[in-house]
Amino acid sequence: MPVAAAQNVFRLRITLEDVTPTVWRRLLVPGGVPLAKLHHMFQAAMGWTNSHLHSFTIGDEFYGMH
Q: Residues 49-66: pLDDT tens digits?
């Protein structure tokens, strides 16, 4: 039986800005997850219903609606 290649797993801490008390979640996310799927993972972790637009900024790169 072939052995599966090792895959990176990232531990993320998601913190909402401008909310008191602080609201945060920790997620373990496999490497290579597309941003669209990561968005759905965030939605599930926060108990949200995917009813708002979203975007990601990584370094100087913006991903999402302009």
A: 988 888 888 899 998 876
